[in-house]
Amino acid sequence: MQPYNRHLITHARHPIAAPLHPHSVLDLIERAVGDDDAARPRILDLGCGEGAWLLEVLAHFPGARAVGVDIDGGGLARAAEQAEALGVADRLELHEMPAADYRAAEPFDVVLNVGATHAFGGLLPTLEAARAHLAPGGRALIGDGFWEREPTPAVLEILGESPDAYADLAGTVDRITGAGWTPVYGHTSTLDEWDDYEWSWTGSLAEWALDHPDHPRAGEAAETAAAHRTAWLHGYRGTLGFVTLVLRRTA
Questions:
Q1: For residue range 112-132, what is the model confidence (pLDDT) as tens digits?
Q2: Residue among 23, 6, 8, 5 at smallest CA distance from 196
Q3: Separation CA 141–CA 43 (nearest Å)
Q4: How far is CA 10 from the centre of its chain?
Q5: What is the pLDDT of residue 3?
Q6: Which CATH number characterizes residue 94's domain?
Q7: Separation between Cα atoms, residue 130 and residue 128, nearest integer Å
Q8: Domain that holds residue 41
Q9: Residue 5 located in a structural domain
Q10: Rounded to an integer, what distance in angstroms lies between the CA atom of residue 14 and that of residue 207?
Q11: In the chain, how many domains are there?
């Protein structure tokens, strides 16, 4: 019987686990890594999931070497399979462990954490973790939520968040600069990018449930897809935003 891994199912058609179109992803990678095809950067993704960001980097930068850290063994296995298929497995190192526990002997040129700041307990602790792994002059690529508009009590209840879980976009950038970082580029996800991500997430899970009616977790998958779709359409759509920033240390 096919194993049930919700993350792999929900991201089957949208491997980047964030509301970003492919061209936005590539633009951010080029801004973070650089546009020198001969460069040999070292890249670290803290909370890499199935390694979609790292696979993009390795495909576009033949000299790059990458390390991914995540607690999801299924996602890491998928990353390893994709790396073999793309012919980049010799440049990818994967670790199944909490991202906060990872230690490396050498610093990295780029440290990523996009949509996984929960691994460190929020945005500012994530920035501290990135700082510890970053080489002088390196860049961090960080993606996190922000409030597009003030959330209603109903939205906060749906998300299970408090009003101060996020700031607005200006406040988010202020938090980052106050922590000793300078944004050198950023991308604010559009509503179209959000919709594509959410339709892919809910649709892939709902379709899996329909295609596997005899699976013992088919009902759970269908209920999860429906609940997520309702929370999005009747709750946080247009209220919860997402910004991905290329950062350098201010000092």
A1: 999 999 999 999 999 999 999
A2: 23
A3: 10
A4: 14
A5: 82
A6: 3.40.50.150
A7: 5
A8: 15-148+160-190+240-249
A9: no
A10: 14
A11: 1
